[in-house]
Amino acid sequence: METNISKPQRPQKARGTAPWKIAVPLLAVAALATAAYFIFFHKSPEQKAAEADQEYYEELVDDCRSALREADRFADLTKAEEEYFEEIEELEDEHGSVMPDVYDNLADLEDLRDEQRKDLRDDCIEKAEEYIDDEQYADALGLYNDAISALPDDEELLDLRTALAAKIGFIDVQDIVYGNEDTDGNTLTTPGSTLYTDDMRYLSIWVVYNSLLPEDEGTVKQYFTYRLYYPDGHLDTSGSSPTGYTYGGSFYVAHGEVGQREKLAAWGVKTHSNYPVGVYRLELFYDGHKLFENEFTVEP
After folding, report:
1. What is the value of pTM for the model shown?
2. Concatenated DSSP letters for 83-94?
3. pLDDT tens, residue by residue, 143-170
4. How far apart are CA 14 and CA 263, in angstroms?
5. Rounded Cα–Cα distance for residues 209 and 253 (Å)
6. How far apart are CA 266 and CA 139, in angstroms?
7. Could you read off the pLDDT of 203-232 as tens digits, one per residue?
């Protein structure tokens, strides 16, 4: 009889997970958590600086936008641009790469400025035409000058101003000053000084102007007329007076003149004063268009 003898089995040891096998995954999780914290919660110095300036930047943009929208003159647009655009651009250059969705308004503000310029330009042309119809040439010229200072390459504006300039003798009159001279043109009273009734002989009339003549025109000789009203209100004339005027005179106008002073033909009597005490008014004309008027006083 055979006896079946089993092979002895090696006793089994209690098994557990090695400590290092537990530690490695935990460290990995911790590392991922740390990385996530730095990615999602930690802020770079650049990010902190951008956020610190954000409120100020947004207020600056809002103020600039309001100033542009409220501008009713070219000078107001220029002031808004000078006051805000440079600082806004600096902030966008500094923080735009960190917060591009926030620091990105200058282009829109420039578009708004351009739209406002166009609206002001159209208003300028319309209003200038009304002034011209009413023979308020100085006011029309002022509008064109303001518009061209902001839009120096606008051909239509330049052409309109040149057409107006031709209509008024290519001069923008700044003032008229008065003196006193004898029949030979020698000065008796310096222009701009006090005029006294007993000293008066011929009233000398000096036109102070800025030239409007285009550069390609060089120099032109222009003829102007004037009306002189005495203190009692009558228009003084003589047999040599042009119809409807007291007298006239010519002078040359050259491109680029600023504050130029030219004399018209004097008016008076050779032997005695024909200027009683009082306030006089003179109106200056070119081709029938009134350019300027002012008053002067003859003292006792």
Report:
1. 0.72
2. IIIHHHHHHHHH
3. 999 999 989 999 999 999 999 999 999 9
4. 125
5. 10
6. 28
7. 999 999 999 999 999 899 999 999 999 999
